[in-house]
Design brief:
By secondary structure, the protein is mainly α. It has helices at 2-26, 29-58, 61-72, 75-78, 103-111, 114-128, 135-142, 148-169, 178-191, 193-197, 202-229, 236-265, 273-287, 291-294, 305-313. The radius of gyration is 22 Å and the shape is globular.
Length: 324
């Protein structure tokens, strides 16, 4: 599990850093993030959710993990399709001061920027808010007595909801600022708990998971978009890595808290599993309220705009910039 988490975190940082770099450069981050998220969701909604339930119920853990590891090797077949992007030609004197000219100096300047640390503090607490994700399957099996196959089917309903959330985000303006995106992420994170409070049978579970994932998808999309707005030119990988590392550390803590709260409020204290689940969600919602005070610390000017303006000024002499 440690090796798997390390590999997934490293892959996530690298992939998202590439998307942030290209998306901020040509202003199409929303479109890139949409494609990145929506394709796997279509697969989950179509068959992967139910397949996962069948595999979990009828396969051994060794067989399941072995097949998963072999499927990951498919990435090697895609490597020949990747091409290193060409660096844009520098044709303006105003480009000589760009952060990419001296990455070490640019990194020192970025670390002195209060905006980066304000965003890092918001990301850290956002990740620290307890999460009920791990406790949810236990509630489904302990309180509602769902089979593993049906829990797998609920994943498909959740994926459908997530696709709906991404579609709704396409109506958002392209020029949303960091603080606006952070506000949207915080509000939707709290609202996503409400459909889960209403789950009490198979039908409400399907509707609840669809609604929860639709709202959570808006939250995750705006959250990722906020990160993109926090990355200055030439330092996308470093800044994104800093934020991702902070989130990864605190996410494991929040997941641990959410799982143990389910036990503390429920079976471990002599209460029912449903009682523990409901009070876990209520506590998660209450824990998210301080996020709105941290919003006041976020910058009004986005770090990503530090390099948008120079590109606009020299755009006429960089005709190939939008193609890289």
């Amino acid at each position: 599990l440690l090796l798997s988490a390390t590999g997934l975190t490293l892959r996530s940082v690298l992939v998202h850093a590439i998307m942030v770099t290209q998306g901020n450069r040509v202003g199409n981050y929303k479109a890139v993030q949409s494609v990145f998220q929506i394709l796997p969701l279509f697969l989950v909604a179509a068959y992967a959710g139910r397949l996962g339930g069948v595999v979990t119920e009828h396969w051994s853990y060794r067989a399941a993990f072995t097949v998963a590891a072999c499927l990951c090797l498919g990435y090697l077949l895609l490597l020949p399709l990747l091409k290193e992007p060409e660096a844009p030609v520098q044709t303006s004197e105003s480009d000589t001061s760009a952060p990419t000219e001296n990455p070490r100096v640019a990194l020192k300047q970025a670390l002195k920027d209060r905006r980066l640390w304000a965003v890092t503090a918001f990301v850290a607490y956002f990740g620290l808010v307890p999460s009920p994700d791990t406790a949810r399957p236990y509630f489904f099996s302990d309180a509602l007595h769902f089979s593993k196959v049906f829990i797998g089917e609920l994943t498909g309903w959740g994926a459908t909801g997530a696709v709906l959330g991404i579609v709704l985000m396409q109506f958002a303006p392209r020029g949303l600022k960091l603080r606006t995106l952070a506000t949207l992420a915080g509000v939707t994170m709290l609202l996503a708990m409400v459909p889960q409070l209403l789950i009490h049978d198979a039908l409400s579970a399907k509707i609840g998971m669809l609604a929860f994932n639709a709202i959570a998808s808006i939250c995750n999309f705006s959250y990722a978009w906020m990160w993109a707005r926090a990355c200055p030119k030439g330092l996308e990988t470093v800044v994104y890595g800093t934020l991702a590392s902070t989130l990864a550390l605190f996410y494991y803590l929040c997941d641990w808290l959410g799982t143990h709260m389910y036990d503390w409020f429920g079976p471990a204290s002599g209460h029912s599993a449903a009682y523990g689940w409901h009070w876990t969600l209520i506590t998660c919602m209450a824990s998210g309220i301080p996020l709105f005070f941290l919003l006041l610390l976020l910058p009004k000017a986005d770090p990503a705009e530090d390099h948008v303006q120079p590109q606009q000024e020299v755009g006429a002499v960089l005709p190939g910039a939008a193609t890289h």
